[in-house]
Amino acid sequence: MDRLKLEFPTLARKEDAIEYIKEFHADGSRLDGTNRLEQYINDYPSWLKRLDEDLKKEPGEDRVPAETYFLVRESDNKIVGMINIRLTLNHNLWNFGGHIGYSIRPSERRKGYNKINLYLALCICEKHGIEVVLLDCAKDNLGSSKTMRALGGKMIYEYFDSEKNIVIQNYVIDVEKSLAENKERFAEMIAKYPE
Ligand SMILES: CC(C)(COP(=O)(O)OP(=O)(O)OC[C@H]1O[C@@H](n2cnc3c(N)ncnc32)[C@H](O)[C@@H]1OP(=O)(O)O)[C@@H](O)C(=O)NCCC(=O)NCCS
Q: Is 118 within 8 Å of 182 (Cβ atoms)?
């Protein structure tokens, strides 16, 4: 049984982080849920600085306080995913993006890892007093919508985004309820709970 944990990005993960993004490129995968790491592939320390600033950000229209983590597999210490948790929402995020963005590297998909990724993020949301999380995804992104549904996500509405030319679905998850209902189900796959 694979066991996973969230890890705050550090300089020691520079090569692993670059390799993570390169795998998306090689696969031709969409880069959603990687928190713009691609733009910092040649300047990883600046990405770390940005993450540090995100922790202290005052809520505003351009940026909100947020936490980003790597999802790491215990057995081989490999980064298998990422998650970005916005601790509050501004007008833009209410309309697009919501509280959480996530990704799993192409070679590690369809193993149930993103469900663990989201479960661990909900643990963090609970610690920050977030009672209901808002998430969105493209309607055709079944891996994402099924992750949300698996954690108790309820679709509240969908709409056609004419700029992106796609249908977007918005989901909400009751944090306390989801954590309680899924506790036993995921317990064996969690190496460490967020502190
Ligand atoms: C979306 C993504 C995070 C899913 O990660 P994953 O680890 O493969 O997801 P899981 O294995 O935990 O699967 C979650 C559910 O989605 C289903 N699923 C996953 N990928 C799927 C696909 N391509 N098509 C249909 N269903 C899929 C799984 O079967 C599972 O459903 P179940 O609960 O009924 O068993 C991953 O595909 C990814 O990183 N995509 C690129 C970035 C992205 O789209 N991020 C989300 C933006 S909203």
A: no
Given a contact cutoff of 8 angstroms between Cβ atoms, the answer to whether 178 and 151 are in contact is yes
CA 147 to ligand 1 centroid distance, Å: 6
Kindly report the average pLDDT of the chain as a whole number: 96
User: Does residue 72 sit in helix, strand or coil?
Assistant: strand
Mean pLDDT of 105-114: 98
Q: 4-187 maps to which CATH number?
A: 3.40.630.30
Atom from ligand 1 closest to the CA of residue 116: 12
What is the four-CA torsion angle of 99, 135, 51, 111, rounded to 10 degrees? Answer: 140
Identify the helix (H) or strand (E) that includes residue 92. Answer: helix 91-95
Q: What confidence category does residue 18 fall into, taking pLDDT thresholds of 50, 70 and 90? A: very high
Per-residue model confidence (pLDDT) at position 186: 97
Q: Answer whether residue 62 shows pLDDT above 80.
A: no
Q: How far apart are CA 192 and CA 187, in angstroms?
A: 10
Domain regions of the chain by residue span: 4-187
Q: Work out the widest C-alpha separation in the chain, in whole angstroms.
A: 44
To test the pocket of ligand 1, the residue of 110, 151, 158 to mutate (highest count of ligand atoms within 8 Å of its CB) is 110
Residue of 20, 24, 114, 167 with the most ligand 1 atoms within 8 Å of its CB, for mutation = 114
- Whether residue 88 is predicted with pLDDT greater than 90 in this model: the reply is yes
Which residue carries 């969230």 as its tokens? 6
